[in-house]
Amino acid sequence: MKKEDKNKIIEQISTTLKEYDHFYLTDIATLNAAKTSQLRRECSKQDIKLVVVKNTLLKKALESLDGNYEELYSVLKGNTAIMFSNVASAPAKLIDKYSKDKVPAFKGAYVQESFYVGEGQLKSLVNIKTKAELIGEIITLLQSPAKNVVSALQSGGTLLHGVLKTLSEK
Q1: Is 105:27 a contact under the CB 8 Å cutoff?
Q2: pLDDT category of residue 146 using cuts at 50, 70 and 90
Q3: What span, in angstroms and rounded, lies between the C-alpha atoms of 149 and 127?
Q4: Which of the given ranges, 43-57, 109-123, 146-160, has the highest pLDDT on average?
Q5: What is the pLDDT of residues 68-79, one digit of tens each?
Q6: What CATH number belongs to 3-128?
């Protein structure tokens, strides 16, 4: 491959890395053609972009970006496919779905500005919540005491009204 072609590929990978908030590194080498097509279809349904890359080109693309991605360099061995996504847990759930076959094999990930390396990290990535989900939970927790006070005042008001009505009827 010519140097110009390699530079174009590196630039393309770098651009794609900037477009997506999260990416997962997997190994899909042992999948046959039918299963690879099925995986690609499922990725497409969930807005996950699946790209097979050469490790050296991916490493150079990561080096060209702002930030330090050295923690992922150790898993850049063998066959590597990247799953790009803007939803943090979507690729993890897809990989976990296929976990009984061990394919795609999870190598590492960059999710929510953190690195996850090794098979043991997959379960924590499946359960990771998005920023919107966390904000929703915080708002619910903040609203809970106010709702309890309003509910208590409303129930107390009807109770007081019932007592006064009963006394007035006697």
Answers
A1: yes
A2: confident
A3: 33
A4: 43-57
A5: 999 999 999 999
A6: 3.30.70.1730
Residue tagged 């393309």 (tokens): 12
Nearest to 106 by CA among 23, 9, 36, 11: 23
User: Rounded distance, CA 34 to CA 137, Å?
Assistant: 41
Decide: pTM greater than 0.70: yes
Does residue 102 or residue 146 have the better pLDDT? Answer: 146
Burial of 24 (0-12, 13-18, 19+ CB in 10 A): buried
